[in-house]
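Input (Alkylhydroperoxidase):
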Amino acid sequence: MLDWNEYRKQLGPRIGELGKLTPDTLAGYQTIANAGNKTGHLDAKTRELIALAVAVTTRCDGCIAVHVAAADKAGATREEVAEALGVAVALNAGAAMVYSARVMDAMAELPPK
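Output:
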């Protein structure tokens, strides 16, 4: 496993280096990342729980490192995080079921032997 605190510390400067090379990319990302803060439809804790579930489904270690700290700061409990991760697990399993159906559909279209 990772040393998540150290990883988070190392990640910021690396992202900053990328931002210097392509500032519009970083600015665009920051605009998207902060858009939910402006609407007020979801509170910070809910957004962070969603972010953690999505981080799992997209396999993003950097996202996990950043959003675990943000979820904790927003007051998320271990139990709430675990429940959000359960949704991620279910969605990944659901996606596998859907794509399994696609495989079977592709098999059905093979020419007869």
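The mean pLDDT is 95.
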